[in-house]
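INPUT
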Amino acid sequence: MPADRSPAPPRRYALASLFGPGQEGMVSHTPHAAHLGIRVVETGPGFGVCALPFREELIGDPARRVIFGGAITTLIDHASGLAVACAVEELTAIATIDLRVDYLRAAAPDVVLYARAECYRLTANVAFVRAVAYERAVDDPFASAMGTFMVGANRSDSSFERLIAARRGSGR
Amino acid sequence: MRGIVDAIPYARFLGVEVERREGALECVLPFRPEIVGNAALPAVHGGVLGAFLELTALLHLLDESGSERVPKPITFSVDYLRTAGPATTRARAEIFKLGRRIANVRVVAWQDDPARPVAAGNGKFLLSDGRRAPGDAGPAGPDA
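OUTPUT
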């Protein structure tokens, strides 16, 4: 190991100004997330946490009152995209390449479900994300997931870009 | 089949319909503003596409097995191949291994042209009709 490694310059994060809990703007531009009632709980460098309130309409197995796996996929996909948005230096469009969800156990009914996603590797074109979904504790997940995302898929359609522009415009 | 869709609240929530074409079960996801993920394009939310594929796999399994009990997903993986625009999305599933306890299912979704799929899925489901007694722990945990 070289001893004289120069310290890495501080990372820039395009969304640094939005880091923190309760950034409703990060959901409101996504109609389906708003429709499901997904909200952002926490954001920071390279990670995001989203919450999905329990609703009867989301049940996939009426006998067990377990929420449909696909709704959990949506929650995880959303948190994962958020984690990538919180990892990039320049605002850009993000497209899911693939996503794999492992259902470790049934999610508890009638409680809020959370997903925490972390972008653990970012290259010029691809972001690599891992995520877990849980009811109470991040270390007791009911689902875990791995995904890859294309960054810069399209330069001009980032809704985050509009969000930041809108906040600048309103002087926030 | 309509009865099974009605029995799954999430299927109704997405507005999924089922049709039988050339003997195969085909699931239909009509476009609605509520399923948009990226309003700028607009494009269907990736999570909705994944959920639609998983639902198609599940309904196909229920249809083939005649089971009333919903198989439990173990893992589901989705490849996103093209942007799904504001149009009707269709999907078909195929069971490529039906074991005693696990079924492996492939699913493909498209919009205008089946040869140009928008997403493809691959799922493994734990079948409820295994040899284990009810309440006995399965491979995916006591309540999975």
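end of record. The radius of gyration of chain A is 17 Å.
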